[in-house]
Specification:
By secondary structure, the chain is mainly alpha-helical. The protein is built from 6 helices and 2 strands; from the N terminus they run ββαααααα. It has a domain of about 70 residues: 434 Repressor (Amino-terminal Domain) (Orthogonal Bundle), CATH 1.10.260. Helices cover about 45% and strands about 10% of the residues. Helix 3 packs across helix 4.
Length: about 100
Amino acid sequence: MPSVSLLLGAGRTKSLTPRYVGCNIAFMMDHPLKAYRRENGLSLEALAVKALTTRSTLSRVEARLLRPTHDLLRRISDATEGNVSIEALVEATVVPAREVAA
């Protein structure tokens, strides 16, 4: 398994082995829906009303805790006037990887 070296200062390094398989860099970035809301000054509540869903549901989608149905994906994309595509929403849905025994 590949490892990562961290520079600790004074020339010292520490080698780390990832604990999760399939870690996706996209997971560390803002969810495209959250980025859209920030750019457009929308609250979860305001976007939820437009998408005919609840604030809690959108929050869970943004936190990647909910795998949205196709109908919800369509409603969210429509609420953003197509600025956040269904494809972008699907790509942002990350299934947590299983922890690898150390």
